[in-house]
Amino acid sequence: MGCNQSVDTDILVHVNLNSPIFNSESISVKSTVRTLFKDLCKKVILDNISSNYSPKALSYRITFKGKEYSLEDSNRIYNLRLQPNDTLTIIGIPMEIKKSNILITYFSATSRYETEKEVSKLALIKTIVEKPNSKVIYGQLELEHDQKFDDYDIPSNTRLHILEDGHNINEIQMWKIKKSGLVLEALCLNINCSAFKQRIIINIGLGEFDINAEISQDNEKQCGCCGAVLGKVCKVGYAHCVVSYTAILSDGNSKEVINKIKMYSEENMNSLPGYVNIVKYI
Q1: Domain pair 10-94 / 99-163, same fold
Q2: What are the C-alpha distances in Å from 179 to residues 139, 167, 262?
Q3: Are 14 and 88 in contact (CB under 8 A)?
Q4: CA-CA distance, 235 to 186, in Å (whole number)?
Q5: What's the mean pLDDT in 191-217?
Q6: Where are the domains of the chain?
Q7: Which of 8, 124, 134, 267 is least enclosed, having the fewest CB within 10 Å?
Q8: Does 3.10.20.90 match the CATH number of domain 10-94?
Q9: Which domain of life does the protein's organism represent (predicted)?
């Protein structure tokens, strides 16, 4: 980058693509020179890929001036010394799509039946759902219909339970089921509750949260089984989401932390973060 060129300077990048993976074989895209090279490549891929292909079902060969790069490259555009007539090439290569065998038990108010299906790892969870308001349960986690099987750690020959029409069953203790986002746990102390002295899951969800305020005893939480006020929060965790917060290090400096959580992760109750931002798993 020249001495007089600002990091906010726009540059027009020419990109060669391969068909039929991409809709066009040659495009030009405007970007600032401070943009990360990998972010530019990802944008080109997402904006131009054919609807017949999934971005995650492809590997990519990215070349510029005879050198190969990856989607993890941390260079910025100005580090590559792009000139006005330079051309970047992105080749999409279909990968073998992995499949998994899934055992499924469907429950409704009037029936129950079991089946077995072979599904693509890139298929959406909703492809095995027969009724849109059904709950798909894997272990103690409720799966989201618009997520892919590959977005979760679901081994082959795993059994999923699908509860239709909002129907709950005795085989699954719904007070233990976690949903995407912030998850708290607290004991139910109501002696008449079916979950007496058991840890009740409190699904808070996605958003920005003050953890200390959420677990404060002034912020009462109700039992999902009996409605009684729960005891003190004893666990804090996150289910299938992306969590970010600022951590204060021992030397007083701060560090931005981003955790991408496929299934479930618990916090150490002795070193909880202050404010957290929790977004959908991507």
Answers
A1: yes
A2: 12, 17, 12
A3: yes
A4: 7
A5: 94
A6: 10-94, 99-163, 176-280
A7: 8
A8: yes
A9: Eukaryota
Asked whether the beta carbons of 119 and 127 are under 8 A apart, the reply is: yes
| pLDDT exceeds cutoff 50 at 2 | no
Return phi, psi of residue 279, to 5°: -125, 170
Place of tokens 């077995």: 116
106 has which bridge partners?
113, 162
Q: CA angle, 220 as apex, 227 and 203 as ends, to 5°?
A: 70
Vertex 233 angle, CA 228 and 235, to 5°: 130
Asked if omega into 20 is within 30° of 0 (cis), the reply is yes
Asked whether residue 1 carries a pLDDT value surpassing 50, the answer given is no
Integer Cα distance of 65 and 244 in angstroms: 37
Q: Please, what is the average pLDDT of the chain?
A: 89
For 13, the 3-state DSSP assignment is strand
Q: What is the pLDDT of residues 88-101, one digit of tens each?
A: 999 999 887 788 89
DSSP-derived 3-state class of residue 180: coil
pLDDT at 187: 95
Kindly report the length of the chain. 282
Express each pLDDT in 26-36 by its tens digit.
999 988 888 88
- What are the structure tokens assigned to 128, written together? 């095995």
The domain 99-163 is classified under which CATH number: 1.20.1250.20, 3.10.20.90, 2.60.120.10, 3.20.20.140? Answer: 3.10.20.90
